Amino acid sequence: MIKGLKICGVSDPKTLGYILNHIKPPEFVGFITNYKKSKRFVEYERLKELVKIDKKKVNFTSVLVNPTNETLEKIKDLNFDYYQLYNVTPERTKEIKLKYKVKIITAITVSKTEDVIKYKDYLEMSDIILFDSKGYHKSESFDHNLLKEVPKELNKMIAGNIQIEDIPNFKYEDFIIDISGSLEDINGKKDIDKINKLLNLYARI
């Protein structure tokens, strides 16, 4: 069955408060920390205030694309449980994990079978392996059938333009589901009604 749910790209206090106080909150909430191309990016000063909250049992995740030392030093004392790392080498990932004593979600971007097996290089230093599309901020899809050979015992997350209606299809899969774009309105803002629909559906699975 689904191992958990992550709502990514939260950028305002109202949405975050709604999620945290829902009767069935997700296990993870993600914040776009340094990728300015994303419409979900949160500037540091706003981010600092946004995550300064009782997160209850929800894991706060800082989403980082090839972060510099300056960025990592700036966020090191913020209220994050995980760093979700894109485009970071295994060596650098290990360095970040050891220095900042934080749990790591390693993001593997997938478009073909050869991409999938890259997860093996990150097993030692990753707490979760995320399989995502190449789209980064564009909520693109990829063929989830490419993941059929990934071991069941691997603690893994899946993203890539997943829709609310897709959630029941994962009922018997052992993934944490990472969802973002399908929870937004036409202006790219998180939609409370869509989040409520997702969480209520998740509660019934």
Describe the structure.
The structure is a single chain. The chain is built from six helices and eight strands. The mean pLDDT is 93. It is globular and about 40 Å long. The chain has helices spanning 13-20, 44-50, 69-75, 90-100, 113-116, 192-204; strands at residues 4-8, 28-32, 59-65, 82-86, 103-109, 128-132, 156-158, 175-179. It is α/β, with parallel strands linked by helices and 205 residues long. Strands 1-2-3-4-5-6-7-8 form an eight-stranded parallel β-barrel. The protein has one domain (4-204): Alpha-Beta Barrel (TIM Barrel), CATH 3.20.20.
Summarize the structure.
With 205 residues, the chain is of the alpha/beta class.
Topology:
Blueprint: E1 4-8, H1 13-20, E2 28-32, H2 44-50, E3 59-65, H3 69-75, E4 82-86, H4 90-100, E5 103-109, H5 113-116, E6 128-132, E7 156-158, E8 175-179, H6 192-204
- Unreliable residue runs: none
- Kindly provide the radius of gyration, computed on alpha-carbon positions and rounded to a whole number of angstroms: 16 Å
Quickly give the structural class: alpha/beta
CATH class: Alpha Beta
Order of helices and strands: EHEHEHEHEHEEEH
The total tally of domains equals 1
User: In the CATH classification, which architecture applies?
Assistant: Alpha-Beta Barrel
